[in-house]
Amino acid sequence: MDPLREAKEPFIFSIQAYIPELTGLKASNLQQLLDHIKTVPDSVIYHHTHHFLQEHQYLSPEPPNDFAYWVTEFLHEVRLGESLLSIDTIQYTTIRELRNEIIRTLEAFIEQYPTSLNKFVLPGEEFHFLKSANFILQTPYKVSNLKDFRDALKKITIDSIYFHMYEARLRIRRGTNDFSRWLEECLEETKLANKIAAIDPYTHTLENLRFAIVKLIDKRIAELEKSPEIRGVLPKS
Amino acid sequence: MPNISDYAAVVGSSTIEELQLLANKLQGKSVQNINSTAIGGGVAELLNRIVPLLKDLGINAQWDVIKGGENFFTITKRFHNALHGRYEEITPEMYNLFLETSKKNIEQLNLSGDFIVIHDPQPIALIKKKPALPYSKWIWRCHIDISSPDTKVWNFLIPFLHQYDSAVFSSPGFSQQLPIRQFLVPPSIDPLSDKNKDLSQEAIDDVLDKYHIPKDKPIITQISRFDYLKDPIGVIEAYRIVKRRIDCQLILAGGTATDDPESSKVYADTMENAGDDPDIHILAIPSGSDLDINALQRASTVIIQKSIREGFGLTVTEALWKAKPVVASSVGGIPLQIKHKYNGLLCHSIFGAAFSIKQLLHNPEYAKRLGENGREHVRQNFLLTRHLRDCILLFLSMYHPEEIIYLS
Q1: Dihedral-angle region of residue A19 (phi above 0 means left; psi in -120 to 50 means alpha; beta otherwise)
Q2: Which of A54, A136, A137, A151 to probe by mutation at the B interface, max B CB count within 10 Å?
Q3: What is the pTM of this model?
Q4: Which residues does residue B328 pair with via DSSP β-bridges, in sequence order?
Q5: ipTM surpasses cut 0.90
Q6: What's the number of CA atoms in the CB half-sphere (13 Å) around residue B184?
């Protein structure tokens, strides 16, 4: 088979750009944090568990979500920070489930350490709740085969990687990331699609994520070029 | 002045392409910025760069300045101080003069933009013109810290603010509970300006020679105007603690305004405190010496910003951009810029600052990693190109109240 084989439908790369919105809500201790987490819109939870990925895309290891960072660095609740940090975001397919897990973690900690509620941060160190207005638009990068897909992946901005790997999965609720979906549905590259879907994007920087995906595709292209017949014997999943 | 394509060398051509893609969605729209001064001050400096770059991107941007006599600006200066939380005596006559001057400006200014961006409190009352311009979107862009404003002045301004379509603040801590949408747009630095552009080692060495600073020991630097809120004496104390273990030198460099008696006093106190230590260099640098500041930052081993209060802290942004390890107080906008132990170190006291400086001087690899992370953090979040993108997204948001917006 040919890595230049035409896909059923082209893949159009989009970008996601956002501007943070202020809610005017803030928390000075764990109780206030918990109360607001229970009532703020989904977009607030999404913002505080994801914006680090775009803002700190260069860091490895990257900082945790905002809640974990704040309770660790400002409330000095290291144990709770670790619990919030270790929430496995990838396993949740809705913001509601992710929010519930954060609430459960906070409530369990408060129950075990009720005096933690007596700790207040200094003025100026409060947790400020933000959300964001997100804009999605198509880029001129439109590809129809695996090679062009790989080449475009190398060129697009990290905002595009972010959109297709995170936003599409969790917020737009497409179930999996866009790259895997296209590879499977339009190129019948099920095995490659599964390998990309198996990457935990939350433990990679966006640049590392790009590198990991490109590497998987490179390997697959090499296979196809070496043994054109190989595609026929690949298992479906 | 650089044009938009010149920034591709710093942020990558794909970022500029993305900006252009977004800007294309605003083709044919006009943006009218209004502030109170054409020269001097951060807002004028920002508009000087942003307006031409928006035009480069095909957006019809313009900039107008309100007129006001000395009395008007004395009053607005008092507003400014009061919004910072300081008590100011403001009489009913002063409020009246503010309203009368605003009325004259409404009559004289040709207000016509699709987006009318009013910067800071001085022109805030222009919003009275809103009913006459039903298709314009009005944005109040607040550049100052209003986290704990004097309630009397704040209550006077609130009725104006509530008529705007949106407000924009520089830091989450400055936001208030308001019935209008509020956006966060942090300040930015221009990587191609004299203060931030790359310099050759020769140019850096020339500046060190000019100020008689030897290169034989590590340099700790704080760049700030001489102001008690920047705690220059606390910086000297931290340096002395470090000096007990590591032979180093300290640079305290910044402007002293000749018309500001307090600044001269702080400078004199700092000099006195430094005594005859030849390793402390206190430099009163005239305003506009951006290349000198740039060189001093680049020559430093560690940059400190031990402010007691801070707005956003652009000197921190500048230091991070130069990939310098930074030790800074956790105040104002500094925690937005520094994530502790990831791209710099936050401190809360003189001892904490000294400890962090020692850590960095003893661990150059760690210091280097923090510095590199700092530079990338600024590249991603605090350069002028991000500011431009925020402006474009802000304008687009005026037509889209929803959270996820598909632009076709």
Answers
A1: beta
A2: A137
A3: 0.86
A4: B305, B346
A5: no
A6: 25
